From TrEMBL:
Chain positions covered by the region annotation Disordered: 1-29
Thioredoxin domain residues: 83-160
Entry-linked InterPro entries: Thioredoxin-like_sf, Thioredoxin_domain
Protein name: Thioredoxin domain-containing protein
SUPFAM superfamilies from the UniProt entry: Thioredoxin-like (SSF52833)
Pfam families: Thioredoxin
Length: 235
C-alpha cells in the first residue's frame, strides 16, 4: 500500500466530498455567464473560484481541534513544554503515512482528556523540519515520535509504534489505549479516560504482544523487531 493510500485511509479521500460542490459550482458559473450585470457577475465568479480552490485543498495534519495544537518553531516547542505542567508532543513529517496514523491516536487522547477538568495536560504536534534545534536536542531520529514532558523534563519517548503495536494494526483503537497507558506510566497523564471493552481485535492484539515478547526472549541479540522495521528515518 502506498503512502498516499495510507493517508487516504486515515483521513478519507479529500476529493470525494467535493465532487458535488464542484458540480454545483460549474452550474452556477454557467448561469452567471448569462447575467447582464457585469460587476455582479465578475464578483460572484471570483467568489466561486476562491471557494472552489479552498474545497480542493488537501487535508493536512494541521487541520485539527484546539485540544491538539500545531507548533511552528523551536521557540514555540520550548515554550510549550516548559509552560505547561504536563505536555505531550508528536514529532511528525507531513509526508509519512505512519505519522498520520499516530496523529489520530494523539488527537483522540487529547480530545478525550480535554473534556475532563482534572486532566491537566496539553497536547501538540510539530513538523520536524520546523524545529531542528529541539529535534537534535531530544535525539529524534525515527518517526513518528511521541515525547511526554512533566515540568519541562522528558519522562518518556515512543519511537515509531514500539511498545504500542505488535500485530501491524497501527490504526486500531487498541493502539490508542496502549498509548494512553504509556503516558500514564510516564505520569504525564493522571488517569485513564479512553474506555473500551475487550473484543476480538483486542484479543488478537494481546496474543500478538505475547508472541512478540516470546520472540524477544528467544532472540536476544536482535537489534530491531519486525514491528519497527518500517519506521521512517527522516534525516
Amino acid at each position: 500500500m502506498s503512502e498516499e493510500q495510507s493517508k487516504s485511509e486515515v483521513y478519507g479521500d479529500p476529493t470525494e466530498a467535493t465532487h458535488q460542490e464542484e458540480d454545483d459550482a460549474d452550474a452556477l458559473l454557467a448561469s452567471l455567464e448569462e447575467e447582464d450585470d457585469s460587476c455582479y457577475r465578475s464578483r460572484r465568479l471570483q467568489e466561486l473560484r476562491s471557494a472552489s480552490e479552498a474545497a480542493k485543498a488537501p487535508r493536512t495534519l494541521t487541520a485539527t481541534s484546539k485540544a491538539f495544537i500545531t507548533l511552528k518553531s523551536d521557540d514555540e516547542a520550548l515554550s510549550f513544554t516548559t509552560q505547561h505542567e504536563r505536555a505531550v508532543v508528536h514529532f511528525f513529517h507531513p509526508e509519512f503515512a505512519r505519522c498520520s496514523a499516530m496523529d489520530v491516536h494523539c488527537e483522540k487522547i487529547a480530545e478525550t482528556h480535554a473534556q475532563q477538568q482534572e486532566a491537566d495536560v496539553s497536547f501538540a504536534r510539530i513538523d520536524v523540519k520546523n524545529a531542528p534545534f529541539v529535534v537534535e536536542k531530544l535525539g529524534v531520529r525515527i518517526l513518528p515520535c511521541v515525547i511526554g514532558f512533566v515540568k519541562g523534563v522528558v519522562k518518556g519517548k515512543v519511537t515509531g509504534f514500539e511498545g504500542l503495536c505488535w500485530d501491524g494494526k497501527e490504526e486500531s483503537f487498541a493502539v490508542t489505549r496502549a498509548l494512553e497507558d504509556t503516558l500514564i506510566n510516564w505520569t504525564v497523564l493522571k488517569k485513564r479516560y479512553i474506555l473500551g471493552h475487550l473484543d476480538d481485535d483486542d484479543s488478537d492484539h494481546d496474543n500478538a504482544r505475547e508472541a512478540f515478547h516470546e520472540g524477544r526472549r528467544g532472540i536476544r541479540d536482535r537489534k530491531k523487531t519486525a514491528a519497527n522495521d518500517d519506521d521512517d528515518e527522516w534525516d
